[in-house]
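FAQ: What does the model actually see?

It sees only this:
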Amino acid sequence: MNIDDRTEWLEADGLGGFASGTISGIRTRRYHALLLPATTPPTGRVVLANGFDACVDTPDGSFALSTQRYAPDVLHPDGAAHINQFTPDPWPTWEFQLPDGTRVIQEIFVQHGTGAAVVVWTLARRKGPVVLRVRPFLSGRDYHSLHHENRAFRFTASHREGVVTFSTYDGLPCIVALSNGDYRHAPEWYQQFLYAAERERGLDDIEDLASPGEFSWRLSGPGEQAVWVLRVGAADEHEALTADEVVTRVSGARATERRRREAFPTPLDRAADAYLVRRRSGQTIVAGYPWFTDWGRDTFIAMRGLCLATGRVAEARNILLEWAGTVSEGMLPNRFADRGEAPEFNAVDASLWYVIAAHELLALVPKRSNLLTSAQRRILETAITEIVHGYARGTRFGIRMDGDGLLAAGVPGVQLTWMDARVGDRVITPRIGKPVEIQALWLNALDVVSRVSRASRLEPTWRDVFDRGRAAFLERFWNENLGRLADVVDVDHVPGTRDDTFRPNQILAVGGLPIAIVDAGRGRRIVDAIEEHLVTPVGLRSLAPGEHGYAPRYEGDSSARDAVYHQGTVWPWLIGPFVEAWVRVRGNTNAARREARARFVEPLLAHLQTAGLGHVSEIADAEPPFTPKGCPFQAWSLGELLRLDRMVLIEQKRTTRLRAVVQESG
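And it is asked to produce this:
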């Protein structure tokens, strides 16, 4: 079997922690780990158990089930060569065919809601007696860091029947290992693991890991299992379990987890579940794995597909209510910091995306439904009006409604739009002034608040502001010669200036939001231009080829990559607004939906098997073969694919589909 160490699997625990790796078993990132919990869900992530070495002793010799990459670039042992088959369903499962004919099945899954990582080896075929030996690799570090040999690491292990507890460093939770095998304490440092993906990204790539000892299992016949569970615990836990009790626990967890996964109607629905996690007593959405936590902008964009399109209305409600309490001066934070620092409000669009998502939930749920009480409706409506009022009055970073009804935003040195890359103090795409997608969001928000106000018989003038802003938008952004919209007008707050750089942001004036800002004729010209120059099989380029600064590849060290993050690099999430616009300008016909699905969605579905299994990547190179890059498991990329599949391209009226989703969700 051709085993690719670039294809990655993910097991999320519902708390912000996860286990991940490659189908080859070779860890290529600092984030690949077996036990990586979020100590303050969904943040405070630490790597406790990085992985393991495993081998099988048979009468014909000892054969590896694992492979590590060591510096300078040495693969050892040769376990990856023995992989005969791999499947991610219902969880990552490998079949190893050993040279003497012995066959072993290895399964890894994370128990949802607990963070416990479960590994099960099943002897499928044997030649004589078999002994499985496994050495865990431990660290105890922040998940963004690397670990090196040091004297502070504690190899101490507390060993009771069926349970071994490791206490690696002060201030970190202990690792509790349950097994139906034996444990032999034999401390060793394993040095100079090399992470190829980190090296490609120009980052530190060498790590040392500690191995306190070895677990072993004697397997006498086909069907016998070695089970191993790693979970977070406390040093003073007093638990002893017989081998049978450990197996019973694992069997129960396995059955429960299988039923939970089988309850999802499709693999895409199951993938969506990975991003919905706990935050305090509420819920939120992780922007992506392995290195993002919850970001405001990403949450509200992703929610429309991950929650509303999949019928998870209660989760959408909980998330929006959780964020509603964070409105400050009309703004929502763009990110909750990992270590409890003050929230960051450096986003002009996050709050506007919240308005869109909240309005869609309000429109989706009937007023007498128990999914949304009157008090909860008022909370969401209040958040909507506070955001629009705050923006209209003026708030942080020069965000304010101008006299033409459009929204100005930006100050030097701060990146406010989703094109937020910076290198040191240099903002790559500052877009200060009136960015095109911000106007589309603002005008949609004005439309929403006018409806909310009309329902409560308050402030009917928001409709007048909307009409004034829309007229100004059409007059000021449209370029008849180019047949498309400017990316920014009033550049750097200089009246009358414009930036006609060809970027995809203008697509939100045609699709991706409840109402289109441009008429059908201009919309068709915009869509045609974007299709010709920006569309790829995996999303939209962030800059058209031929424009100044266009970069065909996303590569190099962090500074080089940040400099081209929005300079051509493809973003899969933008396929959602584009396809919706493409269908809209063709009259929203079923024929257009079918054609759009075949032309734009099917190629993206093929991507589900090429990077993060079952998921959609954050970005890709701008030129063939459009290699996936960045975060391999990205919430808004998957969310927009789901929104297209379930809402935009469904061959029935949208409102009918929405109501059906609510009824299905109870």
